[in-house]
From TrEMBL:
Source organism (scientific name): Lentilactobacillus curieae
Protein name: MFS transporter
InterPro entries: MFS, MFS_dom, MFS_trans_sf
Domain of life: Bacteria
Predominant place of localization: membrane
Assigned GO CC terms: plasma membrane
Subcellular location: Cell membrane
Amino acid sequence: MELSNKARKWFVATLLVGTFTMSISQSALSTAYPTFMRYFNLPASTVAWLTTGFMLVMSVVMPLSPWLMDNFKFKPLYLTLLAIFAIGTIIIIFAPNFPIMMVGRLMEAVSVGILFPSYQSIILEITPQEHRGAIMGTVGLVMGSALAVGPIISGVVLQVLNWQAIFGLFLIVLVVVFLLASRTIISPREIKATRFDFLSVFYSLGIIGLLYFINEIKQMTSGNYGNWIILVISLVLLGLFVQRQLASKEPLLRLDILKIGNFDLGVALTSLSYMSLITVTIIMPLYYQQVLGMTPLWSGLALVPAAALLSWLNRRSGKMADRVGFKPTIMIGFGLFIVGWLLLLSISGLHNVWLAIIGSMVVEAGNAFAMMPATTLGANSLTDDLIPHGSSIIATIRQIMGSTAVVIATVILGNGNFSAVFLTFLLLEIFAMILVFIIKDSTKKMD
């Protein structure tokens, strides 16, 4: 369906405002953990399930996105996802205890997990290929900004109001977005009814088990056989999932598209980029506090320059990709990653906050030139009907690799070995740069 330029702008703006609000909910709660611990009288390990459980459920519903987009018109699907998130948020606000709060939180996760690949697919489909770099740069700006401002917003709200006000703010914005979406969102895709594969959904639960194991590695002891059993069962389920997708005539997720040259590189490079982004946002506050002796407030504020630079560069890097091509743009991104990690490695013993901030800024600048351009590179190698499958694959693998990066960084960090962390991710991004050279300048689309 062709859209006028004005209609497309309203369509995309509505999608991005809704997604921005939901994205903030992912990162905002970390600041409020101490408040939740006091309110519910629970340890940090239990409260952390507000994020861990959210991540697990979000990851397992992502593969459902292509089937939902094939079988339901996008407008009612989007409005339903907004409603599910809003209902979950209301449950959280009035939750009398932590288990009820978790129910609402998991409802939010279902909505976000389906929406993230869906909205990117729709934006790519309604945007001419020659302008996709710029629009996906805007998507990256929204994602990066949400990651940065979430903890700041929750911190400010908690200074003057209670924790329920954080979710109340989300709810107010989502009601406005719902009303706006009812006027501006359309259904640009043709519906084609396909069979829902319950067995594939069951096999996909292996994603939850795998992510659970990854997140538990830090706490595992030598006699903890239960987690190893979970890992084995999860890997068997995932193996059966892959086998079924490749053998089925109507797979839940078209894993066969990973054979496409530039798409497989797009998946790998966007994941490697995200691994550095998530690591620097988690490791650097620890560096500021443990090495430089800064307070939690100032260690959080020290991340703002890097996040602001990332947001400012995202759309500009997208326009650059449209103008000069994705390969040179992505090459700049991973070049900046290498320089940034090398700088952090070089100055880790100098105990200088300004040099550390500059190093973080260079790393996050690399993400602006790497992650979304790599995502768009992968999408451009697919026909429009395969883009939902591609977006779902990228989002799911990126989530798994992001969790893996956090575990790798924290295990290597140990009692403060920051230099080893910086070196590890420097080597990882050098490997990524080798992959960049394999990118083909032209893409052959797969039917």
